[in-house]
Automatic annotation (TrEMBL), chains A, B:
Alphabetized Pfam families for the sequence: PRA-CH
Name of the protein this chain belongs to: Phosphoribosyl-AMP cyclohydrolase
Domain Phosphoribosyl-AMP cyclohydrolase: 41-113
Gene Ontology CC terms, in alphabetical order: cytoplasm
Enzyme class: hydrolase
Amino acid sequence: MGGMTGNSSALDPAVAARLKRNADGLVPAVAQQYDTGEVLMLGWMDDEALHRTLTTGRCTYWSRSRQEYWVKGDTSGHVQHVKSVALDCDGDTILVKVDQEGPACHTGTRTCFDADVLLSAP
Amino acid sequence: MGGMTGNSSALDPAVAARLKRNADGLVPAVAQQYDTGEVLMLGWMDDEALHRTLTTGRCTYWSRSRQEYWVKGDTSGHVQHVKSVALDCDGDTILVKVDQEGPACHTGTRTCFDADVLLSAP
């Protein structure tokens, strides 16, 4: 299980009731630069990460590799300031519009999708 | 398991080697309108769905609920014409830029993220 369960999180119960989590209790969260529209990265949130993202103004994920909460930018300085948060129609994906400081990707590129382009139409 | 395994798909083996799939053999795929930057929806692809997306010009997902390939628009008419495809730095997320005909969401809204806004900064 990723992080806390819905029941032990402070997430608004009305929101928690709409969330559809995977077997690990997580929901994919797409981070998008609010003004340019760039898709920056995809992370994972449990109820508590979503709660913190909604209430702290800083995008917070659940790190599957480290099994801990991860406030984007705490280590790198590449903070994501939260502008808006929406659930999709099924409640199984989160879209967070952010203002990204510096590169979003740990490789140093602006987005995580810059380096491995498989197809680009002419 | 979602759909075929990597070994039985015609996906370029060099791409298949970079894909990191979940326990069901699937990778999340973010569909974005190529010109406006709107994040339209998130679907799931296995190797074969990615192969078809790369080679047919039509966005193709694996439907987890129906357990079958799903060419977006085949039923609804709301086709996604593929403009570009990229993997992220970890190979565990796909970004597909598309030209979306009509609404992307089965509810009739332009994107799947239009109806359930949890937070919107002033």
